[in-house]
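Take a record:
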Amino acid sequence: MVRWYMEHEARKYFDTIFRDTSYGHIQYRLEQYWLCALIGLIFNEYNVNLKENIEITDSFTTDLRSFEDEIRALVFYRFLHITNVNPDDDTILSQMNEFFDMNNLSRISTNGMKYMDYFASKGFDIIKEKIKLETTKNLYQFLTKYLKLIEEKYPN
């Protein structure tokens, strides 16, 4: 079974932020994972050496399900650049076969999941560096800083 993996340190980070749930929280680990992966994808940075982690799930959560095609497309786009494949080249079909797997609930192969984990790992490193736990105690503060982080990369 193909699953996403979330680093232990990332789990602890989000557990600390969401300790006070009166401001809300992000319930599912995959959604926390996706916040990390999205930052890695936006900054186009990834770690190939993953830290200690734990498997979280093999399918999209209900809230992410309506975006799963976009998620797969964005990760595949970055995957093509990492593997230096020209999207106009005929080899893109073999790369699609390497990245996608219609037999998995996520429709992503083991290799594709590995690349998502790489982006999530680096995305967490960026989040951890830019959104300090000492100044972030709840969902509101986290999301405000998270959006500023995205705006830092893509102003207006």
In short: Residues 110-130 form the longest helix (21 residues). Residues 8-153 form one domain. The chain has seven helices and two strands. The chain has one domain: 8-153.
